[in-house]
Specification:
3 helices, 9 strands
């Protein structure tokens, strides 16, 4: 969920409510995070603003933006369970025609706090603004960090179809057995997921 620099939404797990599976709170993300106990969140997923001056944010000094993000990252790590994960989805900051990959700029904030980067996932999409003096951007990235080596990764629940699902070993001790996992293959770290084009019906109230 993308949120303004001074307004954000956090989904808090059921451990904070005996009657509901999730609670949606709206407000300043740092103030909301400060109310969450240490080590109580299993998964943090966010797509913060890119400091581009969109309708939901105010573009400012880039170093101040990084400092603000560092404070948010610090709080997210504080509330993260020892076996938890953080997924930080960002694109590029653009200034005077030059891009700064935000995942690279923000990586030190996680690394210096001893989080381990498990994957740098590339989200590839087909639609977006068309550039005239550089190649058009058609991807963003998701940094998946864990707090320790003891974390949940349920590969079987996210497998995708094999390219050759019926392929078998034709010789050797495994002859006749499937040479690939019958449940599917690991989806890899490049995800091709279409985005929604501007002014299409999915982006309107109609």
């Amino acid at each position: 969920m993308r949120h303004p620099s001074n307004m954000s939404a956090l989904t808090i797990s059921a451990s904070f409510s005996t009657s509901k599976q999730a609670v949606l709170l709206e407000g300043d993300c740092l103030k909301l995070l400060s109310k969450i106990p240490d080590g109580s969140i299993r998964l943090v997923v966010t797509s913060p603003p890119y400091n581009l001056g969109k309708s939901y944010e105010r573009k400012g000094d880039f170093e101040k933006y990084l400092s603000w993000q560092d404070k948010v990252i610090t709080e997210c790590i504080r509330v993260l369970h020892p076996e938890g994960s953080i997924c930080w989805q960002v694109g590029n900051y653009v200034h005077d025609g030059a891009i700064v990959p935000l995942d690279i700029a923000l990586y030190p904030s996680f690394a210096q706090r001893n989080l381990k980067l498990r994957n740098r996932i590339v989200w590839h999409f087909e639609h977006g603004l068309h550039c005239t003096r550089r190649l058009s951007g058609r991807y963003e990235t998701i940094l998946w960090f864990t707090k320790s080596d003891n974390y949940l990764f349920d590969l079987d629940s996210i497998r995708v179809p094999q390219k050759y699902p019926g392929k078998k070993y034709f010789k050797g001790p495994k002859a006749g057995q499937y040479s690939c996992n019958p449940l599917g293959k690991n989806p890899g770290d490049v995800w091709v997921i279409p985005n929604v084009k501007n002014n299409h019906v999915e982006k309107t109230w109609g």
